[in-house]
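Quick one:
INPUT:
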């Protein structure tokens, strides 16, 4: 198949999520080059390495003010030495548009997993760059239904591909795995979260739950970015464990009694479709979430996730979760999970790319 050149705002070694799930599957079929955003460190160089059959390319640039032209220059040198014949151009960030206007590719895909313009620290021209990317794209995929509804009027071929899940990986948690060392001494009941701790975290709700139920232990697994770690609520029953490998997450969640999505309701969370919702379900744990739209619909509406925004609502939802028999819950989860695998998502994306390439070939002929 045609090679694939991917541009992402996320580091490959960051939290394992949508780009990693899809690109590792793509790499089973074709050559995949994953270009990260540049590292500003005063140098002018490009690193390339292999991970899960994917080539990870990291530009290093002298200054943020010259990041775009420096990165474009480094990328051009790399592609001259490692040519890719009419690759699929795959974008996770519109910020890559200035680097690639001159590249001759095949099918262009914009896999829009977040509204990046709403994130803290977003570049001022992100909306303009997205409009340009939408004009160039042949296919637009969205990471959730709310994003789909926001983008479908902006392009003739927008498809919703909500978050999927590697069910066998997380289902290992149902067997009762041994606690990781840094969780072993934490008392029960445990409420757990894994993911990035940033401006999307509802810190007031986190502190409020800890204060309302001091006997409950709250385990927060994930890196802290874009906010000062000193801002995070500190209580004896809140346990921050930092970033952990994707392979270790089932061991953590296996020891939780309730899985939680304590997201704030703000511009940064308006369009998110948390992958961890399905991962929690695959682990068989009851799930409580704030009213994130792509969680409320469909999971809250289907009775698969309890929705709670205030401290009192969260306490009630978690107490109900602690009393709930596991068997019926897991059966309902499994009926949904059977339809939402990353393998099936990638197969459908591949089909659309192939059909688009074939149609373009016929038009050229």
């Amino acid at each position: 198949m045609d090679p694939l050149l991917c541009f992402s705002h996320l580091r490959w070694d960051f939290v394992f999520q949508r780009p990693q799930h899809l690109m590792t599957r793509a790499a089973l079929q074709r050559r995949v080059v994953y270009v990260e955003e540049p590292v500003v460190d005063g140098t002018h160089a490009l690193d390339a390495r292999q991970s899960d059959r994917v080539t990870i390319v990291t530009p290093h640039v002298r200054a943020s003010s010259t990041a775009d032209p420096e990165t474009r220059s480094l990328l051009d040198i790399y592609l001259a030495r490692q040519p890719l014949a009419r690759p699929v151009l795959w974008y996770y960030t519109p910020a890559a548009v200035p680097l690639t206007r001159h590249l001759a590719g095949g099918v262009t895909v914009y896999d829009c997993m977040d509204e990046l313009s709403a994130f803290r620290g977003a570049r001022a021209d992100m909306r303009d760059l997205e409009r340009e990317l939408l004009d160039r794209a042949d296919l637009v995929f969205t990471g959730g239904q709310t994003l789909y509804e926001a983008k479908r009027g902006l392009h003739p071929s927008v498809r919703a591909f909500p978050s999927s899940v590697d069910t066998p990986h997380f289902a290992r948690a149902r067997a009762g795995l041994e606690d990781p060392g840094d969780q072993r001494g934490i008392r029960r009941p445990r409420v757990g979260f894994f993911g990035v701790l940033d401006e999307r975290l509802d810190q007031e709700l986190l502190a409020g739950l800890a204060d309302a139920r001091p006997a409950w232990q709250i385990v927060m697994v994930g890196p802290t970015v874009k906010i000062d770690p000193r801002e995070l609520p500190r209580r004896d029953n809140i346990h921050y464990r930092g970033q952990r490998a994707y392979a270790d997450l089932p061991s953590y969640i296996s020891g939780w009694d309730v899985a939680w999505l304590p997201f704030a309701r703000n511009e940064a969370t308006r369009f998110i479709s948390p992958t961890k919702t399905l991962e929690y379900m695959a682990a068989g744990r009851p799930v409580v979430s704030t009213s994130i739209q792509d969680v409320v619909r469909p999971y809250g509406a289907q009775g698969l996730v309890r929705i709670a925004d205030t401290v009192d609502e969260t306490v009630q939802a978690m107490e109900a979760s602690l009393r709930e028999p596991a068997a019926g819950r897991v059966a309902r989860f499994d009926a949904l999970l059977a339809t939402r695998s990353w393998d099936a998502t990638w197969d459908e994306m591949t089909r659309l790319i192939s059909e688009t390439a074939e149609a373009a070939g016929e038009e050229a002929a």
